[in-house]
Amino acid sequence: MASSGGNIISISRRTDIPAFYSRWLMNRIRAGYCHVLHPFAGTLNRVSLRPEDCAALVFWTRNPRPMIRHLPVLDRMGYRYYFHVTLNGYPPTVESHNPPLASALDAVLRLAEWVGPERIIWRYDPILIADELSPTYHLQHFDALSSRLEGATRRCYISFVAPYAKTLRNLHRVEREAGMHFRTLPTEGQQSLAKQLSSLASAHSMRLYACCNDHLVGDGVLKGECVGREMIRLINPQVGNRLVLAPTRPQCGCVRSIDIGAYDTCVFGCAYCYATNSRQAALRRLHAHDPSDTLLFRPASLRGVDLSMREEAADHPLSFDTSAGACV
User: Fold this and answer.
1) Using H for helix, E for strand and C for coil, what is the string for 67-93?
2) Per-residue pLDDT reduced to its tens digit, 197-233
3) Which domain holds residue 207?
């Protein structure tokens, strides 16, 4: 059974492991561990994935379909888990290689048949504002999506797009190539839209949560905790009061977790993504990916290196310069 005192494993904020790397994940689950390179410090960590060392697994995906067939294995091994599923249904100019909307909706419904609605969080996130994506568009689109998802989830998380450098660069590219013009909705407009979305969510038996957007909280909108105490205790009541807050950015309500993903490895090509420099870079890393490796992505300078000799627990841990692509 999953341990009450184990780690929470995030799978993953940095990439879509369920969609593209489920084979690698299950290989690591069976082996009982994986390696993770810190994306900034460059240090190497060995992360236990044994059931007794994992209080919970938190999945993040746009396409849970490849992972669904593995869930019986996770259940038999005693893992506790839940899913964040992002489903915006934006046009291809913004979400260039996402699954077709009908297929994405069907995948969520199939997932709900196995895990139940309490273990699925629907992310209508981030909210982009443009002439083609007006508040009226969002209200109509959200109503249609929440109608289709009624009964498959009880929670929906929203936020307005954050101005990360990668996000702004990619959105500016869409503006140049597609003629779209993104704009920031004033605070009052964001609050008004969130209130109306909350009413629509409630009509379809869902609660609306704001992720790192505390100015939206109120009028039926709750504060979101993506890796949150409520969800973790729901799937694993034995964790008790051992969960420690560890915000990942301002206004974040998440507890401490270990992310086992790698940046620049998701090939969905979303223009607002904060985790991918370019889809071309992600495609190169996907093609270089080895499902049998202990790392999700191994930089060229680490090929042939025995990572078991360079783990952070050792006296001289490996340090890797992720920007220059060389060991230091």
Assistant:
1) HHCCHHHHHHHCCCEEEEEECCCCCCC
2) 999 999 999 999 999 999 999 999 999 999 999 999 9
3) 7-327
Going by pLDDT thresholds of 50, 70 and 90, the confidence category of residue 312 is low
Where does 3-149 have alpha helices with state H? 17-20, 22-31, 65-68, 71-77, 101-115, 135-149
CA distance linking residue 14 with residue 92, whole number of Å: 22
Instruction: Kindly tell me if the per-residue pLDDT of 270 is higher than 80.
Output: yes
Q: What is the pLDDT of residue 5?
A: 61
Residue 263 placed within a domain: yes
In this prediction, residue 315 carries a pLDDT of 32
Query: Which H/E stretch holds residue 124?
Result: strand 120-127
Query: Is residue 30 included in any domain, yes or no?
Result: yes
Quote the number of domains for the chain: 1
**CB contact at 8 A, 127 and 54:** no
CA distance 104 to 74: 23
282 domain-assigned: yes
24-52 pLDDT, tens digit each: 999 999 999 999 998 888 889 999 999 99
Residue 1 covered by a domain? no
Q: What span, in angstroms and rounded, lies between the C-alpha atoms of 56 and 217? A: 27
**CA–CA distance, 97 with 94 (Å, rounded to integer):** 9
CA torsion through residues 297, 300, 304, 308, sign: negative
Is the pLDDT at 99 greater than 50? The verdict is: yes
Question: What is the distance between the alpha carbons of residues 6 and 48, in angstroms, rounded to a whole number?
Answer: 9
* Cβ atoms 4, 238 nearer than 8 A: yes
236 neighbors 56 (Cβ within 8 angstroms): yes
> Please, what sign has the CA dihedral across residues 212, 218, 221, 226?
positive
Confidence at residue 268, expressed as pLDDT on a 0 to 100 scale: 97
User: So what's the pLDDT on residue 71?
Assistant: 98
Tell whether the model's pLDDT for residue 322 goes beyond 60: no
Contact present, 322 and 39 (Cβ < 8 Å): yes
